[in-house]
Every structure is written in structure tokens, then in C-alpha cells.
Write a structure and sequence with these properties.
The protein is α/β, with parallel strands linked by helices and 150 residues long. The protein has one domain (7-144): Cytidine Deaminase, domain 2. Helix content is 25%, strand content 39%. A 7-stranded mixed β-barrel has the order 1-3-2-4-5-7-8. The longest helix is centred in the N-terminal third of the chain and has 14 residues, at 12-25. The chain is globular, with a radius of gyration of 14 Å. The structure holds zinc ion. The site of zinc ion (ZN) has 4 residues, from strand 4.
Length: 150
């Protein structure tokens, strides 16, 4: 049995980078990919790779640039890390999976994917939240921000 993922750790500087991109992209959604490793019940994020949002309606949905997705898959393989899942922002929205996110995950996400969602407004980014897709639904995970260099 796959262990149930309950904790997602992210270095403070990686989270700050995602927040900055979320704020800069407002009123559109920013998106990218999370690289790292799994350790028992935890996902340990090491890096966030920014990607262009190529969705038709980037203010309401995200679509990671397929070239970036391919390149990141390749880099993950070559450097022995895992592609844990996507991050994206919710301009003027809550940091929880939207109906669009749920439909998209049900159609295309792998079980165990970690999704990080950052809310953003005109004034900047808010507190991120993290979710694990279990193949059927999202469950919120504890997002643990680790000090840089730890
Ligand atoms: Zn979303």
C-alpha cells in the first residue's frame, strides 16, 4: 500500500519564490512544477520550476507549458528527483482546489500528486495551502515551511 501523504515540506526561499510569481502574475494564474522526493508519508519539495501558463483563459485556469513539463520530467529523471506535482495561484480566490482543478485532477492527475495553491490579490500573495490528490479527491496536507539551508 502506498503510504498516505499527510505532510508537505517546502524551503522558505522556494515558497517565497512561488509567492513572488503569484503576485507578479496577478490577475492571471501563475503555474509551475514542484521537484523533490517522497519520504514515507511526506513530500519534501526541493525546488519549484516556473512554467508559462498556456491556458486559453489564464485568469481562470492554468495549463503548464507542455515543453516545460517535458523538460522538467527529463531533468527530474536525470537528477534523481521526483516530479511531485504542480503549483499554481488563485487570483482573488481561496487557496483550495476549484471545481476546475478537481475536474482536471480527476481526468489527468496521478494518485499521490502534491498540489500547492497560492492565493493572490492586487496587494500580493497570501498563505499557500497544499493538497494531495489520492486518485479520487484532494485532501489537505500540512504545509511545513523549513528554514533555508536545513
Ligand atoms: Zn486552481
Amino acid at each position: 500500500m502506498t503510504p498516505v501523504l499527510t505532510r508537505i515540506a517546502i524551503p522558505a526561499r522556494v515558497l517565497a519564490g512561488i509567492a513572488a510569481r503569484a503576485a507578479a502574475a496577478w490577475p492571471d494564474e501563475c503555474c509551475g512544477l514542484l521537484l523533490g522526493r517522497r519520504d514515507g508519508g511526506a513530500c519534501i519539495i526541493a525546488e519549484a520550476v516556473a512554467a508559462d501558463n498556456v491556458a486559453d483563459d489564464p485568469a481562470r485556469r492554468f495549463e503548464v507549458d507542455p515543453h516545460a513539463l517535458l523538460a522538467t520530467h527529463r531533468r527530474a529523471r536525470e537528477s534523481g528527483v521526483e516530479l511531485l506535482g504542480p503549483y499554481h495561484s488563485h487570483p482573488d480566490g481561496a487557496a483550495v482546489p476549484s471545481a476546475t482543478d478537481r475536474a482536471r485532477a480527476e481526468a489527468a492527475a496521478a494518485a499521490g500528486e502534491a498540489w500547492l495553491i497560492v492565493p493572490a490579490t492586487r496587494d500580493g500573495a497570501g498563505a499557500a495551502r497544499a493538497f494531495i490528490f489520492d486518485g479520487k479527491a484532494f485532501t489537505e496536507a500540512a504545509l511545513v515551511v523549513t528554514p533555508d539551508g536545513a
